[in-house]
Amino acid sequence: MMVKWEGVMPAVTTKFTSDDKLDLVMFEKNIKAQMEAGVNGIILGGTLGEASTLTKEEKEILIKVTLTITKGKIPVIINIAEQSTKDAIEVAKHAESIGAEGIMILPPMRYKATDFETVTYFGEIAKNTSLPIMIYNNPIDYKIEVTLDMFEELSQYKNIVAIKESTREITNVIRLKNRFGDRYKVFTGVDTLGLESLVIGADGWVAGLVCAYPAETVAIYKLVKAGKINEAMKIYRWFMPLLELDISPQLVQNIKLAEVATGIGTENVRAPRLPLQGTERERVLNVIQAAMKTRPSLPDYKNL
């Protein structure tokens, strides 16, 4: 299916059993909850998906299972975060061959590429797949910034169509829109800037806490796009302490604890990650428990 680059797209977590195998039962439960809430796509294999710890076989299983669950109703997008151009092209080709409908690409891993090398890396992948591509721009965590001038160079590749904007410089949304108009669809990738980014023109939201709270996330998006900012703000203000759990090195553990609270996930992570311990665990649980006690009733956002 053709990807419509808008709306909420969860970067889903990978579910594990207590003996470190894929928990496909809980994974399916979560994906169905996302779909019921009205998300616009599923992104597999990102940071939240613990992709760096997954085998090729596990990644393939997750793609195929997700395609079976979604049944063509929403697109399935695969994140690419590889160390070499050759490997990235291989992943892109394989994802396309087994039915993925889009890819999201990080700059080269481990090596801090120059601007020229980064543009060349993205371009080589684009030339070797027909899938639409979202560029993930996150210099805070991955140390390489894709600048406006670099996006100008990348505009020659027609299948590079979207940007996950995670610089945490919110005005970049406006800069991208001013420079490129509708050439690129722009998604906010920072949960704590979600509403603000949508208000100033972002087309969508690649979200993290959506993994535990899909309806609340989609409701904010729908309300903003319907011009109901005050209604969206009421949900967003409630949501903010939870959203702050996304901007942490332990975001995977944090969000998985939130998934436990809402009944659509488990706490199991894959080593070297370990479940939160001690005072930090208590702090995160207190944030989640406080939010659960005041969880808001949502308007009929699906019919806006």
UniProtKB/TrEMBL annotation:
Residues reported to bind pyruvate: 206
GO molecular function, one term: N-acetylneuraminate lyase activity
EC number in record: 4.1.3.3, 4.2.1.41, 4.3.3.7
InterPro entries assigned to the protein according to its UniProt record, in alphabetical order: Aldolase_TIM (IPR013785), DapA-like (IPR002220)
Active site location: 136, 164
SUPFAM superfamilies: Aldolase
Pfam family, one: DHDPS
Superkingdom per UniProt: Bacteria
Keyword NADP: no
Keyword Hydrolase: no
Keywords: Lyase
Enzyme class name: lyase
PANTHER family the record matches: DIHYDRODIPICOLINATE SYNTHASE
Family to which the UniProt record says this protein belongs: Belongs to the DapA family.
Protein name: Dihydrodipicolinate synthase family protein
